[in-house]
Amino acid sequence: MRNNPDAEKRISEVLKFFRDHELPVIHVKQTSTDPNSPLYSKSPGSELKDFATPLKHELLLEKSISCAFWGSDLKKVLDQRGIRKIVLCGLTTDHGISTTARSGASLGFSVFVLSDATATFDRDGEIGTFIIPYPAGVVHELALASLNNEFAQIMTTDNFISSSQIDKSPSLKHSMDGF
Fold first, then answer.
1. Hey, what domains does the chain have and what are their CATH numbers?
2. What's the pLDDT tens digit per position in 152-163?
């Protein structure tokens, strides 16, 4: 089972905000070479959702592992564009979001993770012969807690949008160009 059924709605709001303010958007899609994987490049599970389809001027990078920095040109693209701040949303909080946030921070980027624009699934832990089920909500909150204030600034979509004050200050718009 997955937590945060509104993640797609929140991601749509983030995309609208960035597009309305002409901020750069880079999409990263994970694919697998394993034909049995739901992320196999030729399976329906690997397709982007309609709401997240890149516009013509938006870049789409593909990755084959959970981290968006390794196995893609993301760092090179961000460096070429002078982008030092990144905002992460998508699936899954404890895999792709977490590893990308950690790597991004280690590479010197300021990382923002939007807690309500991310989601994950139930996970099972194993201790010896015992299987311990962890509900998606717990996994999500723990993943965010482990990133908070060390690898990323965690905030909601509304807090991010309202704190940017992009419409109120032309100088802030310029400083937001790195998102």
1. 7-26+65-176 (3.40.50.850)
2. 999 999 999 999
